[in-house]
Design brief:
single chain; 408 residues; alpha/beta; Rossmann fold; 2 domains; 15 helices; 43% helix; binds pyridoxal-5'-phosphate; EC 4.3.1.15
């Protein structure tokens, strides 16, 4: 077992490993075509990278950047980056064309649309991924079926229906809902587009991960314009770990031995990556039960087996967070310091920044801050992966003070 450093419910495991391999499927060479593909899409635009100058000054670090994914394709979350690329790759395989030779609109040409119109995409989701699958399928004139775990937000269900999918709420948690979606896809001859990998199902989730690298690459370009070549710290929140593994895997390829210290952040009731790092036997481990947290997008108990290896070997630390950390991040981003720009960030988007602000501001957390090597030279990058995807809950946290910080 690895050692745990704990304060106020925040638990940190430091990674002592040194690895010398590179995740090839996320190499700069491989992902060039991914970014090129995204740029062919209507509405593609790099999302804002917000530099919180005043907050950084107040908290005593060099820079705090937040990539605001609420602007992605007007969908309020980053997920369509993965889904559009994966579905495009799937269609290219079916149609026997090279993705480098076509753009998104190719699939809408009448003679192509005719060939794909009966395809049905099936998935399980906490919300954002399912909305992206529905949105993509609808644009292509295809059908989509989306399964959601019990207790799913009715607002999110409604949004996915509006995006064109048939939606079913199950009686089980996220991970069992994924198994159900797989079974249903097999029964109806549909195509499972799932954002997590398991033994024998790796190709599509790996394409999804490649899709996520577009935002990681955009962030580096945007930092360069601000004179920054490399962040010192990257905070990545994890559900199954596909997003975090994709971004980290890409940065390992870009920065090699100089990769930023990357901190994986999870809700305490669904901290499967943290648990796997804690057990420290090389293998991914699951968390079961209701996975109860306000961070709906991170309420996943079983790690992606491919990205787990990236997170295991290259992350600097793994953090399990109570819900108050996410709520703190949402409020800090909603109420900017001085002239800093406001970021509307939902529960699963804000937890990284929430952790950053608590570590830097609270004397009680100083030992954890030091363990993560945060100091006045730090250049911090966070990804706000969603906006107010459940506006009512967002309001409760930001305006009504739900989930108050333990220190308030
Ligand atoms: C807003 C948001 N952020 C982060 C994640 C985490 O992604 P992953 O499950 O790949 O770890 C999700 C997943 O649904 C999400 O919706």
């Amino acid at each position: 077992m690895a050692k745990v450093h704990e304060a106020y419910g925040i638990k940190v495991v430091i990674n002592e490993r040194k690895a010398d391999w590179k995740p090839k499927f996320l190499s700069e060479e491989e992902i060039k075509s991914t970014r090129k593909f995204h740029t062919t899409m209507d509405g593609y635009k790099a999302t804002p990278l917000v530099s919180l100058e005043n907050l950084a000054k107040q908290l005593g670090v060099s820079k705090i950047y937040v990539k605001d994914e609420s602007y992605r394709f007007g969908l309020n979350a980053f997920k369509a980056l993965g889904v559009t690329y994966a579905i495009a790759k799937l269609l290219c395989e079916k149609l026997d064309v090279d993705i480098d030779s076509v753009g998104f609109d190719y699939f809408k040409l009448p003679e192509v649309a005719e060939k794909i119109k009966d395809m049905v995409f099936v998935t399980a989701t906490d919300g954002n991924h399912g909305k992206a699958v529905a949105w993509t399928a609808t644009q292509l004139g295809c059908k989509s079926i989306v399964y959601m775990p019990k207790g799913s937000s009715l607002r999110r269900v409604q949004t996915i229906k509006e995006a064109g999918a048939k939606v079913y709420i199950t009686e089980v948690n996220y991970d069992d809902t994924v198994r159900l979606a797989k079974q249903k896809a097999e029964e109806i001859g549909g195509f499972l587009v799932q954002d997590t990998a398991w033994e024998g199902y790796e190709k599509i989730p790996n394409w999804i991960c490649r899709g996520y690298t577009t935002m990681a690459a955009e962030a580096l370009d945007q930092m360069k314009l601000d004179g920054i070549i490399r962040p010192t710290h990257v905070f990545l929140q994890a559900g199954v770990g596909s997003f975090a593994g994709a971004v980290l895997g890409y940065y390992v390829n870009v920065f090699k031995d100089q990769c930023p210290i990357t901190i994986i952040v999870e809700p305490e009731k669904a901290a499967c990556i943290y648990k796997s790092a804690l057990i420290n036997d090389n293998n991914p481990h699951s968390v079961t039960g209701d996975l109860d947290t306000i961070m709906a997008g991170l309420a996943c108990g079983e790690p992606n087996i491919v990205t787990w290896e990236i997170l295991r070997d290259f992350a600097g630390a793994y953090v399990s967070c109570p819900d108050y950390v996410a709520a703190k991040g949402m409020r800090v981003l909603a109420n900017p310091t001085g002239s800093d720009r406001k970021v509307v960030s939902g529960e699963s988007g804000a937890v990284g920044l929430g952790l950053v602000s608590l570590l830097l501001e609270r004397e009680e957390l100083k030992e954890l801050k030091n363990k993560l090597q945060l100091d006045e030279h730090s250049v911090i990058l966070c990804f706000s992966t969603e906006g107010d995807t459940d506006p009512e809950d967002y309001k409760k946290v930001v305006d009504d003070g739900k989930n108050p910080s333990i220190f308030e």
